Amino acid sequence: MQFRWAFAALMLSACAAELPLDEGDPTSPDAGEVVSPTDEDGGNSTVLTVGMTARVTADTLNLRDGVGTAANILAGMPCGASVQVVDGPSTTPTAGWWNVTYQTQTGWASGKYLIPAGLFSDGLCAGGVPSDGGAITGVTVDDIFARAKLAVGYSYYWGHGSWRADLAQLGTCVGSCPSCTHTGAFGADCSGFVAKVWQVPSPSALEVDQHPYSTANFFNDTTHWQPVPRSTLKPADAMVHRTATEGHIALVEMTGSGDPFGNIWLYEARGCATGVVHNLRAVDSTYIAIRRDGL
User: Fold this and answer.
1) Left, alpha or beta for 231 (phi > 0: left; psi -120 to 50: alpha)?
2) What is the pLDDT of residue 203?
3) SS3 of 230, please?
4) Do 192 and 218 contact (CB within 8 A), yes or no?
5) What's the rounded Cα separation, in Å, for the pair 125 and 143?
6) pLDDT for residue 214
7) How many Cβ atoms from other residues are within 10 Å of residue 256's Cβ?
8) 3-state secondary structure of 73
9) Which end of the chain is more exposed for a tag (fewer CB within 10 A), N or C?
10) Across-strand partners of 64?
11) What is the pTM of this model?
12) Is 289 helix (H, G, I), strand (E, B) or coil?
C-alpha cells in the first residue's frame, strides 16, 4: 500500500525569519492576546456588519443582557450556532461586543468568537479549554487540515496568524524578514500558522489575528504538545527546528505511509517570497517531531 506524507523543512530564508527567543510569549502585549471562550473581553471583529447572519466559533459563547462579563448570562450559544447581528460594536465599557439575536433572545456577545456565516466551516469548532489548563479536546485531524487548506495562498506575515475562509485579502510580503514589508490585514508566519491550525492555546476564529508562540516555544516547551519519535510521525504532527537565532515549523500531512526521514508533504508558511504553501520537501535531522495534545 502506497502512502504520501507531509512535512516541513527549513530554508534559511523561510522561517529563519522567525521570532527571536525573547518574543512570541503569550503574555507579551505584542504577541496577540488570547482569550478563553468563557472569558469574553471583546476583540472587535472587523468583518461583522449589522443585519448579517453570523456563526459562533467558540465552544460555548455566552449571550449576556449587557456589555461585559459582569452582565447576566441569558444563554450559552454552542459552536456553529447562528445569530442575527442587530447592533454593535459597543464602545462602553468594552469594545468588540455585538448585539445579536439567538433563537428568541436578544443580548450581547463578544465579536471575537463570531464570524460571518459565509466564512464558517465545521472545522472551526475546535472544542473548549479545560479549566485545569489541560489538553484542549475536540480537535480532529480533519479540522486541522480544513484550516490549513484555507491558508494556502496567503502571505507570509511576520509575527501574525490569521486568514479568511473566502481567500480574500491575501496580502503581500516584500523583503527579508524580520526587516520585511507586509501589506494587508491577513497572513501568517510559520509559528502563527501552526498555532492557528492546531488551535492552541485556545479556540479562535480564522480571521482573529493571534501569534501566541515562537518556534522556540514549539521546540522547547510542552504546553499543548509533546515531542514524539520521528519514526512515529503521523498526520497533523509538526516538525520544528530551532537554533539560538532562527527556526522553522511546518504541519505534516500524511495520506498514507512512507519514509518519515525522506521527502514529506507539508503545509507551511515558508517565507516572505512564497507565503503559505502546500509542498513536498526534504527535512533534515535538525528537526524534531511534535504532536498536539488530544490527537
Assistant:
1) alpha
2) 79
3) helix
4) no
5) 8
6) 93
7) 10
8) strand
9) N
10) 73, 108
11) 0.60
12) strand
Q: H or E element: which one contains 99?
A: strand 97-102
Tell me: pLDDT of 241 over 90: yes
Calpha distance 163→46 (Å, rounded): 13
> In this structure, what C-alpha cell is assigned to residue 13?
530564508
Residues with Cβ < 8 Å from 171, sequence gap 6 or more? 154, 155, 157, 182, 183, 184, 185, 186, 187
Amino acid at 153: G
H or E element: which one contains 217? helix 215-220
Q: Read off φ and ψ for residue 54, nearest 5 degrees.
A: -120, 165
Residue type for position 31: A
Placement of cell 436578544 in the chain: 106
Residue 245 neighbours by CB distance under 10 Å = 9
Instruction: Return residue ranges of the chain for CATH 3.90.1720.10.
Output: 141-292
53-124 is classed CATH 2.30.30.40 = yes
What gap in Å lies between CA 39 and CA 44, rounded to an integer? 15
Summarised one tens digit per residue, pLDDT across range 114-170 is 888 877 766 666 444 332 233 445 578 888 998 999 899 999 999 999 998 777 889
Work out whether strand 82-90 and strand 53-56 pair parallel, antiparallel, or are unpaired.
antiparallel
DSSP 3-state assignment of 151? Answer: helix
Reading the block at residue 166, the C-alpha cell is 473566502
DSSP assigned state of 266: E
Residues of the chain with CATH 2.30.30.40: 53-124
169 torsion bin: left (phi>0), alpha (psi -120 to 50), beta (else): left
Whether 209 and 30 have beta carbons less than 8 Å apart is answered as: no
- As its CATH architecture, domain 141-292 has Alpha-Beta Complex (3.90)
Q: Cα 77 to the chain's mean position, in Å?
A: 21
